[in-house]
Design a protein that fits this description.
Elements: E1 4-9, E2 15-22, E3 27-31, H1 42-46, E4 53-58, H2 75-90, E5 101-105, H3 107-118, E6 125-129, H4 142-153, E7 158-159, H5 162-170, H6 180-189, E8 191-193, E9 199-201, H7 205-213, E10 230-235, H8 242-253, E11 257-262, H9 269-272, H10 274-285
Helix pairs in contact: 2-3, 4-7, 5-6
């Protein structure tokens, strides 16, 4: 599956890549997790394509999108990117005036909620896999910030080739948990070619770390203002991780929230078992089973 790319402006001097991922039916906006990009989800989108027209964009500093001019990452800025993508999708021939559905993963799920709070009825309904919604009484400490940002800063950025990166990622967790075609799509579109023939991560290690450090804007209490139906999905394979602990309170606080659990999946669920997640997305949005 190939995708057409549009360039659209967002705030802070950001130039976003919006990808038409294909399909027929009501429009859906896909919002990816930190460190990833929209086209990593192409194997997942294939199972939606007979019922939905899926659009995805790369958040600022991810994939083919540029970072903020000052390289200051905020999750309010991520929500700005969501709204910019929404406006661009709504302006396309064939989608204008149609209700927009949302699928979000991790940071992407949180950004959808923040965008919906800022501009109600941006979306008709949403399916969010482990959105980053902090408990109201959690205190963000330096240690908690560094739990993700520290390792992100140490990520190896440059490889001799995409094939070498693919081999390394497939041989170890966490990326080794991804379904092979999802990992291949992540690698194919997640690197830039350098003049010396090597490849470098499109989402630079420092940008990924700053994105993690900016988390915490949204708490479960803030979800009460989201008035659309939302499924909060959560995996069980990672034990009681922070993202697992966040899911229940977020779903309970959302006025039209519902919790969906997957015992066999971890935090990368849509990229681990895209078919199963697509089945439930279609059931959630009312289009029947995936193909």
């Amino acid at each position: 599956m190939t995708s057409a790319e549009l360039r659209i402006p967002s705030t802070d001097g950001v130039d976003l890549a919006l990808h038409d991922l294909g399909g027929v039916g009501p429009p859906v906006l896909l919002c990816h997790a930190t460190g990833f990009h929209a086209r990593a989800y192409q194997p997942f989108v294939r199972h939606l394509a007979s019922a939905y027209h899926v659009w995805g964009f790369d958040f600022r500093g991810h994939g083919s999108s540029t970072p903020p001019a000052d390289e200051h990452f905020t999750w309010a800025g991520m929500a700005d990117d969501v709204r910019a993508a929404v406006d661009a999708v709504n302006a396309q021939e064939g989608t204008r005036g149609q209700p927009l559905l949302a699928i979000g993963h991790s940071m992407g799920g949180a950004a959808i909620l923040i965008a919906e709070l800022a501009r109600p009825n941006t979306f008709e309904q949403a399916y969010l896999y482990e959105p980053i919604v902090f408990l109201a009484d959690w205190e963000r400490t330096v240690e908690e910030n560094n739990a993700m940002s520290g390792p992100a800063r140490k990520r190896r950025e440059v490889f001799p080739s995409r094939a070498e990166a693919m081999w390394r990622y497939a041989s170890r967790r966490p990326l080794g948990d991804l379904q092979s075609d999802c990992l291949a799509a992540y690698v194919e579109h997640g690197f830039t070619d350098l003049p010396d023939g090597t490849v470098r991560l499109a989402c630079r290690a420092e940008h990924e770390a700053r994105t993690f450090e900016a988390a915490g804007l949204l708490t479960s209490g803030g979800c009460a203002g989201v008035k659309i139906p939302v499924v909060v999905a959560v995996g069980g394979a990672d034990g009681m991780s922070n993202t697992v602990q966040m899911a229940g309170p977020a779903a309970a606080t959302l006025p039209y929230g519902r919790l969906k659990e997957y015992a066999h999946l971890g935090h990368f669920g849509p990229l681990q078992d895209p078919f199963t997640i697509a089945v439930d997305v279609r059931d959630t949005f009312g289009a029947g089973r995936a193909s």
